[in-house]
Amino acid sequence: MNIHEYQAKAILKSFGAPVSAGFPAFTPEEAAKAATDLPGPLWVVKSQIHAGGRGKGKFKESSAGEKGGVRLAKSIDEVREFASQMLGSTLVTHQTGPEGKKVNRIYVEDGSDIEKEFYLSLLVDRATAQVAFVVSTEGGMDIEAVAEHTPEKIVTFSVDPATGFLPHHGRHIASAFGLKGDLAKQAAKVGATLYKAFVAKDMSLLEVNPLIVTKDGRLVCLDAKMGFEDNALFRHPDEVELRDLTEEDAKEIEASKYELSYIALDGTIGCMVNGAGLAMATMDIIKLYGEEPANFLDVGGGASKEKVTAAFKIITSDPNVKGILVNIFGGIMRCDIIAEGVLAAVKEVGLQVPLVVRLEGTNVEKGKEILRDSGLNVIPADNLDDAAQKIVSAVRGAK
């Protein structure tokens, strides 16, 4: 689960991290009021969407102006004007895709006098089961671009959760930034604070880009991006309340209600599979034969008929889906349950696209019998390779 910048900064502030003063706003009037409550004389008006690259982004609407999703205002009237242009407009960045994201809220922040910009992030290193720090002097830039063109400017190290953040980790951060004296002490303190917040809130990602040095010698987290481990959200009801459903795919929201692992993709072949590894293999073989998967969907090992029905309905709700591949290896998940769920969903929403079903495992013959006797135009498949070729052929024939 991701949250907005202003929400992330509020969490960081609660742990003692240095952040600029600011207020969220949902209307131009609220934005102007926020500016009056800040010192000024410069204010930063920031579009709040779950995507990076906002400053370099472009709005689809010509009325939104040409200055991107992060703008510097020199008067309260400008704050109101920028807020009016941004709110309700669609911002396109390199992370949103061409469809962009609608701006429903903004963040008005006190301006900062910047001397230097750094990059600092924390994430879970699954290979070592430790928290990894990624540090760079190239703040304000896309870290992917830095990694591609100047990888030597990125420093990484891990913190063992058994020991936690230690003084030498802080010195490592300060050294990577080239900081000395009081600024080095501030860098170490910021690193310790961010680590504490990361672990306490069960984050999967914490990115500060940029972490700035102001001209009066202070380190400030000028931006913040947070992601939380979904499986730990039950421990953090306060963070769950921060979820903005308007930023998420409606199909993914519906899938979460049934505890389905679903991720929307850009292809034309909908996939219903049990097991993450089998789902990945199914998507790979669809690509091998020249088409693209429309989703990742793992119904799990012990899904009920209701879950399978919900999964099928979610797939068919995607207008880009031109064919469906059901690939089930029945272990705990019985093939007859899959068949009954597919039939229930088809009866409710109809079947407008080709459907290829490959079943194997527990109660496979019973599952095949249910589908065969249903009267549906289901294309049976003997194995995964056969299934992939048949659904790709069916989709291309329907184009």
Overview in brief:
This is Succinate--CoA ligase [ADP-forming] subunit beta. By secondary structure, this protein is of the alpha+beta class. The chain has helices at residues 5-14, 28-36, 76-86, 143-149, 167-177, 181-200, 237-240, 250-257, 276-288, 305-316, 335-349, 364-372, 384-398; strands at residues 22-25, 43-47, 58-59, 70-73, 90-92, 101-102, 106-110, 114-125, 130-136, 154-159, 203-214, 219-221, 225-228, 261-264, 269-273, 295-298, 323-330, 355-361, 378-380.
Roughly what is the average pLDDT, rounded to an integer?
A: 91
Number of helical runs?
A: 13
Annotated CATH homologous superfamily of the largest domain: Succinyl-CoA synthetase domains
Terminal CA distance reads 36 Å
Helix content: 25-40%
What is the CATH topology descriptor of the largest domain?
Answer: Rossmann fold
Structure summary, number of beta strands: 19
Largest beta-sheet details: 6 strands, antiparallel
Helix/strand-derived class?
A: alpha+beta
Strand content: 25-35%
- What low-confidence regions span 5 or more consecutive residues with pLDDT below 50? none
CATH architecture of the largest domain: 3-Layer(aba) Sandwich
Number of domains: 3
Oligomer designation: single chain
Query: What is the 3D shape?
Result: elongated
Give the radius of gyration: 25 Å
CATH class designation of the largest domain: Alpha Beta
Binding site for ATP: 46, 53-55, 109, 112, 117
EC number: 6.2.1.5
Keywords: ATP-binding, Ligase, Magnesium, Metal-binding, Nucleotide-binding, Tricarboxylic acid cycle
Domain ATP-grasp: 9-254
